[in-house]
Structure formats: C-alpha cells, structure tokens
Amino acid sequence: MDLVGFSQDVFSDICIHYAELAKNLNVKHVTYIPMSALNGDNVVDRSESMPWYEGQTLLEHLETVQIDDAANLTQARFPVQYVIRPQTAELHDYRGYAGKITSGLFRKGDAITVLPSGETSTIDAIEIAEAHLDEAVTPMSVVLHLATDVDISRGI
C-alpha cells in the first residue's frame, strides 16, 4: 500500500479484481487486508496510514481463521512449482509439470483447465518417483503429463 499512497480506492479496486478471480475459482472465503511491506503496516499493528481500514491485522486474522481439515476432493488445484524439460536425447519430448496437489483428485484422462489462460488439455500420465499412477490426491507431490503442449509456467 505504501507504493500507492495508502489509497483506499486502489485497495478497493484490488479487492474487486481478486473477488472476481475467487469467484472463477469457486473460492468462497477470501479476506482482504491492506498491508505495507516497507513499514509492516497492518501486519502486526494497525496502520496509522490507513485509518479507513477497520478490519483485523494479518496476525490477528491468522490467529483466528478457521481452517477446514477435511480434504477437498471436488475442487482440484495443482499449483505448478517446476516445469521439467530434460533436453536429453533419450527424453527429447519429455515435459512434466511438478507440484503439490493442494486440493482434489486427479486421474489419468481427466480434463484440466490452466488458469488464468483458460487453455485445456487432459492428463496423459501421473508420475511419482518414476512410478506411474492412475490417480493422485491431495497432498501428494506429483508430476503431471498432459496430452497436448500447453503453455504453463511456475505459479500459473
């Protein structure tokens, strides 16, 4: 917030954009807290620079937020942490997307949608420690192979 002069209007615009993304991802509970990385405003102590914000600080929120321990098997999420492209003669066409399943269940043959691009493909293979699986579930760390070449990079 320090980069935008602690502007309430800028914060409101950011909240609107994130609310739209959360809706598209079917995320039901999102908390917005304006913070300053430079001075730590609203991280532990309330910010004097943002008198318009009356909500919790980040620490207050983290100490009180309720976390559902039940595994979510209906909304599959897989943040890509690494794209594996060995570029060797024996693996000249290998492309795997490595990451940890944060929710849901993935099966070989499942259709997937890449966000935010909206590109689609299907899961061609699921790999873990050089073994191939028919399915993988949260919180497994796996490598997914897709049937088509899709533009995916870390964090997308």
What does this structure look like?
The chain has 156 residues and is an alpha+beta fold. It has two domains: 2-64, no CATH class; 80-146, Translation factors (Elongation Factor Tu (Ef-tu), domain 3). The chain has helices at residues 8-24, 58-64, and strands at residues 80-84, 96-100, 105-107, 111-113, 120-128, 131-133, 135-137, 141-146.
Shape estimate: elongated
Main β-sheet: number of strands, strand sense, barrel status?
Answer: 6 strands, antiparallel
Overall CATH architecture of the largest domain = Beta Barrel
According to CATH, what is the topology of the largest domain? Answer: Elongation Factor Tu (Ef-tu), domain 3
Summed up, the helix count is 2
* Mean pLDDT across every amino acid position: 89
Instruction: Kindly give the count of domains.
Output: 2
List how many beta strands DSSP finds.
8
The CATH class name of the largest domain reads Mainly Beta
Uncertain segments: none
Which percent band covers the strand fraction? Answer: 15-25%
Structural class: alpha+beta
